[in-house]
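hi!! sorry for the late reply, been swamped w classes. u asked for the two structures so here they r. pasted raw, havent cleaned anything up. first the sequence of the first protein and right below it the tokens
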Amino acid sequence: MPKIDMDKFVMTLILNDSIEEKKAIAKKIFAMAYKKGIYPSSIQELYMARGRGEVPPTFTVPAINLRVLTYDLAKAIFRVAKKKNSGAFIFEIAKSEMGYTNQPAIEYTSVVLAAAIKEGWEGPVFIQGDHFQVSAKNFKQDQEKELASLKALILQAIEAGFYNIDIDSSTLVDLTQKSLKKEQEFNYEACAKLTHFIRQNQPRGVEISVGGEIGEVGSKNSTPEELRAFMEGFRHRLRKGLSGISKISIQTGTSHGGVVLPDGTIAKVKLDFDTLQNLSKIAREEFGLAGAVQHGASTLPSEAFGKFPEVGTAEVHLATEFQNMVYDSSHFPKDLKDRMYDWIRKNLLSERKEGQTDEQFLYSARKKALGAFKKDIMGLPAGVRNAIAAEIEAKFDFLFDRLNAGNTKDFVKKYITLKRVISRKRIEIPEGVEISHEGAD
């Protein structure tokens, strides 16, 4: 059998517009990955061991959203992980990102696995659905229809090898209610229903890691009372005998993408590390979870990242800064960036908020040009893509260091069972159910 040029093979997958053709190529990549000892895996047991106190809460797992140049940047992450003997790191993509970056779940998983093969990785690869978010507006109109849409997305993700899924029903928190239990009621009920659905549909021998969320990112900071109200309600609603969530996302003062100033720069954010430390401790000691999760962190100042492992943060989500580094790289062609910005001005003008400067509008909207120009970006010469990836690889290296994410491979080997999923269940979306890609990222 002739040796496959993985770079060209992946490009065929990425540039193909047919989802069925993507799945056919993906099947071959999965087979090659298993043969090389690479397994899409759940981080569940490592997180449960952390909740039991068997794994010290002294490192923070980086969960990295790759919106652009996914293959090139995934290779860079594996290189950093190998250099630092790291095993606990996550590749993730949000429900919304799948839409505006034009990266369906099966493509994302396959590209990450192809990067693992290319870089000589061996062992588990954690791939996560980030912000599988309930739309409060749609939920209010028709609860079952909105949950059916999320269930269809969950099935698609599981079929594609996403064995880590973050449910975000924090949008349903109602702060007008008189009690904390009532405030969190729709949140924990929806999370319990979707967790139950995941348990019903996860592959045999795989216990998917599920995350919950108590505070919508960008809103008020979370409290211990809210965490306890959510967890008590969630545990009461979840069917007995089923595994619950492994971690909990909270709000500590950040926002997705950062707060953009009129000149297009990012405002400095004061993160509430005391809240993060306190809620992580409660999550571990009272509920057996890995700890609290921090969203919207990639645009924080460099000095902030060393604090996350110090306060016992279980996981930190990183996305926008890597996209920014691609756009702002001196290697990124100016003519392509100009075309993308012209497209934004023409196609996304309705999203411009009153009072926004041109710089603020372009910064907030430019993520949505990534899908429209995906083929142009991936069509850049390999030398250009490699140069951009090298710049971002240095950032990955820095983040792994500051998050104390090196030397975690032994923990992963001890607690993560490698499971080959022989036949991933092919799913059919029920008639009348549409998968929406609206939501947070």
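now the second protein. again sequence first, tokens right under
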Amino acid sequence: MTITLHGQGVFRLLLMAVLLVGCTAEKVSDEQWAHSELSSYAAAFSPDGKYVLVGDTDGPARLWDLENNKVVYSWQNKPEEVGTTTAVGFSGDGKVAATSEQDIIVLWEVATGEPMMRFTFPVKIKSLALSPQGDYLLLALYDRTAVYFDVIENRVVKILEHEGSPVNAPINQLINSVAISPSGKYGLTGGDDQMARLWDLTTGEQLRSWKHSNSVNIVAFYPKGGFVLTGAGNGQTHFWNMVSGEEQYSLRTSSIWPKERPLPDFPTFKMTTTAIDFSPDNNYLITGHASRKLCLWQVVTGDRLDCWQVARRQALRPGVVIQAVSFSPDGKAVYSEAGNGIGQKWLLK
């Protein structure tokens, strides 16, 4: 007997197959460390993959030496006052680190651990990015703006805004994420208007914008130039051509869903990307997600190579957000930092 499937029958079989293989297995990491006593609020890896800066909840930010698993420096605005570090970052050359406590940013010299500059802003800081040499900051503020800030001259150079028309709102929308290009010439912002926007940081001119299905929570530049990556919460993560504005692909955690078919509006095809890093040779991409998931991708095609889940710190607390990911300097391993305060190392087979 021969059974022929058409239309909806084929779709249902594909969907069932995706659901069956969609469950991601938990892997045992090759190494694991407690980088925070209880939980961390923010984390960032140095560009060379040798250090991780972890913003502890109600404690100082700590710079960890990954190879030796030891604290190099403990940083906070006022040593006598314990605060929560709400955002952290590194300059592109890895020489400058930044820590933010609500409305205060301190820049630190990584080589010595000494504070370099301290700035107080009139509103709280949501996220930050440092320029390649650490002489500029791009800050997403809770007043619904992003500011491009000259560290040396202590002044705001440009104010960037996400007006609310894409979501039919009469007011500007909150900006969630920021990034500065490796050249230092361009900025990326992602906001609650469901838009990712590309800016000329010298002129403040908006060069491109990309609409998403939800609030944009992560933006990043491809290190070799020419492309950007943007992601919407509980939506899709896209790889775009900066010059043409066209989408190269969207990341698909289901490896069996046909590329020629658009992704259905179904929960199993949606994800929230919370952290990304490109391999030293720029051929691979690692992403961290809000569902304690890590995924490895091929940059050229966007093909998923592997996905796995990190361990929980406590079995009764299943929610684990991956705050930062990084390739090791030799590209043979991946590091992850999660909101449960656990850092892990995964050897790539």
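hope this helps!! also noticed smth abt the second:
Confidence is low (pLDDT under 50) at residues 1-22.
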